[in-house]
Amino acid sequence: MKAYLFLALAIAAELFGTSMLKASAGFTKLYPSLGTIAGFGVAFYSLSLSLQHIPLGVAYAIWSGVGTAVTAIIGVVIWKETASVTTVAGILLIIAGVVVLNLKGNAHG
Question: Is residue 108, in this structure, part of any structural domain at all?
């Protein structure tokens, strides 16, 4: 269970780091640039801790899948990027893939 808390922290930190990456305007703004570095540092460290108990394929699929889907949503909500039917379909497929991967009988073994 603790491993999934580290994985959740890794996802949250990656979402923060990615949002700061957008705000950094190509690393031309100091504080968002530092936020990017800190966010990804925490993300990778937390992900590494989760890997002590969660198989690599499962952890990475969850981390990258949830991160990608939520980042797309953040892009629309915070950064006012446009969302198309394709964007929504892609997000739904990512979520479905993560769910299917976790339904595997020995995914947490």
Answer: no
In-domain check, residue 109: no
Digit-coded pLDDT (tens) for 62-88: 999 899 999 999 999 999 999 999 989
Task: Enter the pTM of the model.
Answer: 0.86
**Residue 34 belongs to some domain of the structure:** yes
What domain count does the chain have?
1
The reply to whether 61 falls in a domain is yes
SS3 content of the chain, % helix, strand, coil (to 5): 75, 0, 25
pLDDT tens readout for residues 31-63: 999 999 999 999 999 999 999 999 998 899 899
Q: Which domain holds residue 11?
A: 2-103
Q: What length does the chain have? A: 109
Counting DSSP H helices and E strands in the chain, the numbers are 4, 0
Please give the C-alpha separations between residue 71 and each of 19, 20, 74, in angstroms, as whole numbers.
Answer: 8, 11, 5
CA 61, CA 98: separation in Å to the nearest integer? 6
